[in-house]
């Protein structure tokens, strides 16, 4: 106990956005110190049942996704915002925590604040807590993602006014109405960047009879993905395997096709927002209508998503600054506030 | 086409105006150039007309929190095809980024880190205190048991140097027993011979003679015989007749014990004094500043330079052996040593 506190002196307080797609770590007093994909490549030699070893983490492992030989599997240990593979998540967290404490002589033992989706069950929260503790954290705090996102976006969460935040992550989208440091209403839908990719993959297969990989789908999404029909038409040339011929073929996609491909997940998000507005108490709803909805998370970088939500809800929708890091930064602020106010913001298990 | 020209012109004016920190004017001019009305913009951005006007006239008080306003400006700039980031930067210059809404950042107790000056100070002072304690302990032990231990060792070495030749000649089996009992037995023998030769300390002879008479029975008895005379002496004569005179040239802490471990002297010797003590030899003397002390035993000067350690501490057992040594050195009678030991041996064998 004492030794842990001593080791804690050599560690930074960390706020971790343990996302499905990316893991971000904010170190107190230093800012964002790590931004890596939540991907781990595992090597298993000597066939099934053989010894397992971690081959790569983060960016390096992500490059291996879909390109691995038999003895290596690149996996994403998080699914839909929660842990899918406990041990791998633990190893990954351990690696990332050490990575941000490069210079430390002792094994780091930081206080860690981790964001959980507000839809996560008790078991899923417990799993996240345990895996962080197993990764060497001295103390683990959990916070609900929309809360951290709102704080990170700089919204006045402590005022007695309703603020609505929509955080579109890799695996989940969270919508919440916050007032007086607390969540009044929150909802989580398991739609996020991954679902967009899946939508593109299935659209291409359905309409072109061509199979593309996740990485290609993600590239298409980043380059020409849009959520609202725009004036200009963007095009991209991609290569995939023709299902009928079995041979890789090159073809061209345009932004309108991608818009069509993304319709289903986008509709899911829009209806979640609409439901949230319906469920919000009228006074807070009026506040939201006056000031608008704030968009955070990597998913909100899809072109014209704010436009779509504006048209669908009739409310002002604004993008937060640096939406990708909002959650981690917000968590970092909460870590500072824990010392000052106690854990008003923290999620209960 | 006309729209593009307008925006191009606006961008050039925007750069100039940004320096004047008038974000509202840029927006207003661009809107008028693009022939939008405030109502149309409000419709488009789903904002109220008041907010659009507040934006255009840079009325920061009428605008909501910075996050929202930045978002409005970006949306507005995108609608007018202006560089949003630059206008937001201009807004940020005008509007101080007040984040107290999230709780005061001032006075937040930072996490204790090893790099904090306070923690550093405590660490260094603890380490310093550790060193001081270590030094203190070392210096203490150096004066007490360590000095004693080394001093004893030196005594033993010195005494055995004198005695070993005799023991060699006595019995091979019992030689390697550097026990003090053997030595105390052996010492008086030498002294007896020396006193015969020098005729200085006749008092010491009395006891050793008795021992020598007992010795021939066996070596074991010699060992046993040793304490007996001590007992006799301590019982009959707690104060011996040997006279120790010490003269000092500077201060020195000194401790003197006689053969019965009676402490004769235990204090600081003052500078330039002469101290005279009477007791039973051998004397065990500890000196804190040995070079400043000259010693005489029974009016014979004793050379203690060989016993003085680097830090001027000396632990000397001045018995007759030491006197012998000093006498030998002073009178150059080294050549007689084998003869003395021979006679010794002869005595032993005869007895």
Describe this structure in words.
Chain A has twelve helices and 18 strands. Chain A has a five-stranded mixed β-sheet with strand order 3-2-1-9-10, with helices on both faces. In chain A, strands 13-12-11-17-18 form a five-stranded mixed β-sheet, with helices on both faces. Chain A has a three-stranded antiparallel β-sheet with strand order 5-4-6. Helices cover 39% and strands 27% of the residues of chain A. In chain A, a hairpin with a 7-residue loop joins strand 4 (40-44) and strand 5. With 349 residues, chain A is α+β, with helices and mostly antiparallel strands. Chain A has helices at residues 2-9, 58-64, 86-99, 122-134, 145-152, 193-208, 214-224, 255-261, 263-279, 282-291, 305-313, 326-341, and strands at residues 14-18, 22-27, 31-37, 40-44, 52-57, 72-75, 78-79, 82-83, 111-116, 139-144, 163-168, 173-179, 182-189, 210-211, 235-242, 248-254, 293-296, 317-319. Chain B is an alpha+beta fold. Chain B has 15 helices and eight strands. In chain B, strands 4-1-6-7 form a four-stranded antiparallel β-sheet. In chain B, strands 3-2-5-8 form a four-stranded antiparallel β-sheet. In chain B, a hairpin with a 5-residue loop joins strand 2 and strand 3 (263-269). The radius of gyration of chain B is 50 Å and the shape is rod-shaped. The interface between A and B is medium-sized, with 36 and 29 residues.
Give short descriptive properties of this protein.
heterodimer; A: 349 residues; five-stranded mixed beta sheet; 12 helices; B: alpha+beta; four-stranded antiparallel beta sheet; 56% helix
